[in-house]
Structure formats: structure tokens, C-alpha cells
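The aim of this short unit is practical: by the end, you should be able to scan a pair of folded records and say something sensible about each. We start with the first protein, listed as its amino acid sequence and then its C-alpha cells.
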Amino acid sequence: MGKGDPRTKRGKIYQGSFGKTRPKDPKRGKKTAAKKSTSRK
């Protein structure tokens, strides 16, 4: 688990990619419980 691992924060920084481990916007990084709408068509 280090620079070569794409699943870790350090690996994401090394690769220059973003994802769950390294969100682009730190404020939006945490997943919030969204209301599911039941009225789909």
C-alpha cells in the first residue's frame, strides 16, 4: 500500500486521479444520505 496503489490517497495523488479516497472538493467528499424519490416515471 503506497504510491503505486490506486486505492489509497497517496496512490491517487501519485497518479493524479480522483475518486472516493481523494475527492476533488473536500467539502463534498463525505457521502450524505439522500432522500430517495418514489415517484419515478
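Turning to the second protein, read its sequence before its C-alpha cells, just as you did above.
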Amino acid sequence: MLNTDSPIMRTMTSNHFLAGLAVGAIATLVLTNPTIQRALFRTAAKTTSMLKAGMAEAQERFHDAEAEVEMEAGEKPETA
């Protein structure tokens, strides 16, 4: 039977130890498996590409709105 009064056993069964063990196992799997690495890098590349396209679209909409404002300001009759 395990002695749960031992500090070592309490440490090994704590949530922090188990979480660290899980993170270490996942990190090892990711760092050593080329298939997982390829999938992660492809996902990162797609995400970056989508973000760049989104930023370009946002800039285009901003410039369109800016042009509309300038056009409206130019079309107003002057009152003096």
C-alpha cells in the first residue's frame, strides 16, 4: 500500500504535477512528430494568410469610407 503521508507521494499526485506531466507529454509529442509539426505550421500559415487578407479588406473599407467623407464634404454647397 502507498504511503500518502510522504511528501513525495503528495507532490506526485497533486494537480500541478499532473498538469506539468501532461504539458510535457504534449510538448514532446509536438517536438518529435513531423506530421503534427507540419499540421501546426500549415494551420499557422493559413491563419496568418487570413489575417493579412482581413487587414487588407479593412484598409480598403477604411479608404472607401474616407473617400466618401471627402466627397460629401466637397459636394456641400457653401453658405456665406
